[in-house]
Amino acid sequence: MATKHVFDDPVGLVEKNLRGAVALHPGLRYYAPHKVVYNPSHPNSKVAVISGGGAGHEPAHGGFIGKGMLAACISGDIFASPSAAQICSGIDLINNDAGVIMVVNNYTGDCLHFGLAAEKARAARSGHPSKKGGVETVNVADDVAVGRKRGGLVGRRGLAGNIFTCKVLGAAAEKGLDVKTIADLGKHLMDNMVAVGTSLDHCHVPGRPKGDEERGALAADAAELGMGIHNEPGFKHMDKKPEPDVLIGEMLDFLLDPNDADRAYTPFDKDDAPVVFINNLGGMSNLEMNAITDVTLSLLESKWNLHPSRVYCSAYMTSLNAPGFGVSLVNQKRFEKNTGHSLLELLDAPTDAFSWAGVQTGWGSASGKPRDRKAEEQEAHDRLAAVKKAGGSVSGLHEASGNIGGPVNPDPELVRKGISAACAATVEIEPELTKFDTIVGDGDCGETLAQAGTAVKKALDAGQIPLDTAAGTLIAIGEVLESAMGGTSGAIYALFFAGLVQTLLSNPAGTKADAKVWGQAALGALENLGRYTPARPGDRTLVDALDPFCRALGAGKPLSEAVQASRSGAESTVKLTPRLGRATYVGSKDDGDMPPDPGAWGIWALTDGLRKGLGQ
C-alpha cells in the first residue's frame, strides 16, 4: 500500500480539496470558515438535500452538489464528522423554505452532529411563516458485513450507498416531492439496499506514522472482507487472497443468501432486476474495477439468476487511496411496489453534479480573469447575515440567547460561580481522565473535556454567556461546547444542553429556575438525548453517570445526592463491557480490571465541580 503523498502535512489539505472541487463547477460556492460547499441557485420551492461527513471520502460529497442531487455538503477533517455548527451554516447558506433532508452515514459522530443540527433547524423554523417544509434525516445503513448480531445497538454501517441515496433523493427533490415523501423514499431505499466491501490493505492517512504496524497494514498476500470506510478491520481476515471469482462470489453470498439470518436484510427474486452499484475505495485501477464489474455480473447471472436493470461503477465514496472496492445491490422493483415511485426514473433523472455524470453547462464566457474568492467569501457572509436578520436562522440561534425568555436565574452571580467551578473541575481532572482513556480509548478524553471547560470559562470571563435567564445561559454554553469540544462526546454534551433549553422554555417567562424546574429540565434533556444515541446505563459510556444524575434531580433529590448518584454510576463502569462506538465492530480484549469509563468519570467530576461552586 502506498504511504507516499504529495501533501505529507494534513494541515490545510481539506480546505485545498474543497476549493479544488468548487473550481470544477462554476455554480458552486465555498464557505471556508465551516468547510461548506453549496449551490446558491438551489430554488426555494424545492426541498434541499444535504449531506457530508469526514474528509478522505472524495469525491463525496463536494462532487455530488448540483441540480438534481445535493444542495450543499459539509466536510469535517479526515475521517471526522463535521460539527453541528458547521452543519447549521450549511443549512443557512442554501434556500430551504421547502424543507431540508439530511443524508447521514450511520456512524456515531455523524448521527449525533447532524441530529443536533436537525434539532436546531426545527427550533429555528418553528413558527416562521416562510419555512413551510420540515427537517428530516435519512440514515444510510447499508453494510451487511457486521450483521445483526455484531451490529447490536449501533446497527449497520453506512458505505457507498450514501451517494446512491443522495442521487435518488436529490432527483425526488428536483421532481418537486415534499419533505415527508422524500424522507419516506430514503427509508424504503435502506430497506431495499445491501452492501459489502473488501480491501487488500488499509489506507494511510497523511501525517500519521507510515510503519506497517502503526497503520495496521495487511500482509502482501492478505485481504479483508467486510472492510469499512475508516480503516476499520474487516469481518473476515484472509491470509491469502482468494481468486477474484471466489472473493466476489463470497461477497455476493453475504448480500443474497436468504438462509443467512444474520445478513439477509433484503430479499431478491429472479425477476427483480436489481441495480448494481460498485464503488472504488480509491486505490483500485480502472482496469481492475471494470473486471470486477464483469465478474460480479457474471456471478449474479450464473449463480443467482439475476439480471441487473442498471449498473454503476466508479469512485463514489473512497477511503483515501485504499486498494479496495464495495458491491451494493438494490431491489428496485420492491422499492417501487412499496413507494409507488420508480427508482429507475429517479436514477435516470439528469444532474449536473460533476462526479456523477460530469458538468457540461454553465461555464459562461472565458473572461481570462481569476476567480474572485474574496467576493464569494463576502457573498457567503452577506447571505448568512441576511438570513439572521430575516429570522429563522439556524447558525444564528445563539445570538438570541440574551433575551430568549423562559425561567430566570434567581442569583446570576451564584450561576457564575457554579459555571466557573465546573470549568475548573474539568482542568483538574484532565490527567486522571487522560490516564484512563489511554488504557481504554485513544487518550484524548481528558484533553477534550479540559479544552471545553477552558473555552467556557474564557467566554464567561468575556461576558459572552448571559446569566439572567437559564435558557440563555445554556444556549451560550452549548455554542461554546460545539466549537471547543469535538468528537462524539462533544455532540452528546451539545445535544444534552439543547434538550435542557427546550424543556426550560416550556416554562412561563419570568418564573424562577428553582430545583424543581432544573429537575424537570434534566429529565427532558435525558429523554431528548436518548433519541440520538442508543447509549443507556450499562453500556459503559458517559450515560452511566449522566442518567442517574438526571433522574435523581428529577425525583427532587438535592444536588449533592444527584452528584453522588453520578459517581456511583461512573464507578459501576469498571465492571462493564463497551457496547457502543466503533469498538463494537472490532471486538474487545479481556484485560482484567479496567478503569472507569473516562466519559462517565468526567461527568461526575463536572457535576461535582458545579456542586462545589454552588456551595452545596
Automatic annotation (TrEMBL):
Detail which positions bind substrate. G54, A55, G56, H57, D110
Q: Which InterPro entries match?
A: DhaK_ATP (IPR012734), DhaK_dom (IPR004006), DhaL_dom (IPR004007), DhaL_dom_sf (IPR036117), Dihydroxyacetone_Kinase (IPR050861)
Q: What are the BP-aspect GO terms?
A: anaerobic glycerol catabolic process
Q: In which pathway does it act?
A: Polyol metabolism; glycerol fermentation; glycerone phosphate from glycerol (oxidative route): step 2/2
Q: Which UniProt keywords apply?
A: ATP-binding, Glycerol metabolism, Kinase, Nucleotide-binding, Transferase
Q: DhaL domain: which residues?
A: 413-612
Spell out the catalytic residues: H230
Protein function? Catalyzes both the phosphorylation of dihydroxyacetone and of glyceraldehyde.
Task: Kindly provide the name given to this protein in its UniProt entry.
Answer: Probable DAK2 - dihydroxyacetone kinase
Q: Which organism is it from?
A: Pseudozyma flocculosa
